[in-house]
Structure formats: structure tokens, C-alpha cells
Amino acid sequence: MPELPEVETYRRYIEASSLGQTIEQFTCEDPRKLLLNDLDEINNRLNGAVFEATYRVGKHLFVRTNLDDWLYMHFGMTGDLGYFHRDEPPPRHARMIFYFTNGYRLGFICPRKFERVGLVADPAAFLAQKGVAPDVMEITPTVFFDHLRRKKSAIKTVLLDQSVVAGIGNWIADDVLFRAKIHPEIPASALEETEKMRIFEAMRYIVQTTIDVEANYLLLPDDFILHARGWGKPHLAGKCPCGKGEILMSRVGGRATYFCGLCQSKK
DNA sequence: TAACCTGTTCACGC
DNA sequence: GGCGTGAACAGGTT
Description:
By secondary structure, the protein is α+β, with helices and mostly antiparallel strands. It has helices spanning about 5-15, 30-35, 40-45, 125-130, 140-150, 155-160, 170-180, 195-210, and strands spanning about 25-30, 50-55, 60-65, 70-75, 80-85, 95-100, 105-110, 115-120, 245-250, 255-260. The strands form three sheets. Strands 1-6-7-5 form a four-stranded antiparallel beta sheet.
């Protein structure tokens, strides 16, 4: 479920497995859907090149080669990576594969083909063109608060807007608002300064804590409302960490939204 | 079986 | 242009 912490974990996985490796081939089983560029063009640039560095903003990942090309990766809703030896079968749904000269391969796992790969000349320009805001862990309170002031949409919808802040996905938005004790449907522009600061701090805490456990949800503290969704800790399913409030599920901006009727009252 | 779903984009309508 | 809604993408899971 790639939100920022998963993509950061993938970035570290590429650093540990694939940096310094010479690429001899790249394959893609559905180039028209999955690639931003022509498959031949990507192969021309990558064959013989070496992965040298990585860079991530929000959910957007880039890998630089020794030829100064940047390979762009986006994981959509279900993307994943798997590094495997040529003697092993590739992971299921590894629809794109980087073949290295050391006999190992990096598979880009795309169960639903929502993932994207391409070559970009300049990551910063690419992100600017897409309107991607600064990363959650980089954005300043001033810039963040300024966006909130201008947005009349529900605060949850605004947190999911990658042009406001990059990297927050559906469950993280819920946990940020739970920790900040803000109702998800409050218009962003109606928030008080102290509430905005609570959101800012909660945002950094939730994201950093999730990165620290390499996005393994079972290792997250019990006071995350994510567990109420029933993802892996059965004894916490449907319960607010506060022990008293009722967990409510609604739809905000078309997305399933979990919150506590007691901790996050609308006032 | 049918309904559901993590991200993103786009097409509408107001 | 802002905002909300819904569809589309494709397959796994429940």
C-alpha cells in the first residue's frame, strides 16, 4: 500500500540491492500502459548504465544512472519491488524487470498496472510540472499553513492533495487527524492556528514513526487509529485507542475515512 | 458471487 | 478557476 513510508522503504531496498549494478536489459510486458517513454528509448539509455543514487519526494521515486539519466518510479496503489536471482522464478506480477550483469534482477511488481516508470531529465522540473508540493518531512509550517488557509475543502481531502503536501495517503491522513484531534470534514480554511500546528506536528510524527518500522503496520504503536480498520491486530479492530469513543466510518472526498466520534468531535 | 479497495487523472456540472 | 463527484484503470481479497 504505497504511501510515503513504503516508497521510502523501497528507496532503501534499491540502495541496498541494486546500487552499483550494471544494467544489461530492461523488459516491460505492457509498455503503452506502464511506461512514460518508449521501451526502446529506455533500453538505449539504460543498457550498460549503472544505478548510482536515489531521490524521493512524497510517493515519487527517482534512481540516477552514471549517465545522469533519472529513472522515475511511481508505485500506484499496489506497486512493490522484488530483487531475485536469475535461477529463481520472478515474483508474481513482476511486469517490469531490470536485468543486472551480476545475475540478479530487480522486478517491479505491478498487480493492477497502476504503476509507472519513465526516464526524466530533471526530477525537480518534472515534479514542478506535475504540481507536486514539498515532501511531508521537508515542508515548512509557513508554506503548509498558507495552503490550508486558501482551501475550503474538508481538511482530510486537502491532506490527500499532493499539490499541498507530498506523501500523505488515505490511512495516514486519518491517523494524522486522529492524533491532532480534528474532525476530517472541517474545512481547512476554518482551522485555528493551534489546530494547524497540531496537524503539522502529527503529520511529521505519523510519517516518521511509520518509516522507522519500514511501513510494517504490525509494528506501529497501538494508539494508531489504523488498527481500527482491522489490518492485522484483531484485538484492536473497530476500537478507538482512547478506549471510550465509537469508531465511525464515512466517506470524505470519496475515500473511506475512519475517525473517533469522541476524540474528533466537530464542536 | 459481488462488493470492496491503498493512488492518480480526467471529465463533468455547478 | 475552485470545488465535488464519479469513472476509469486491473486484479486480489473478502
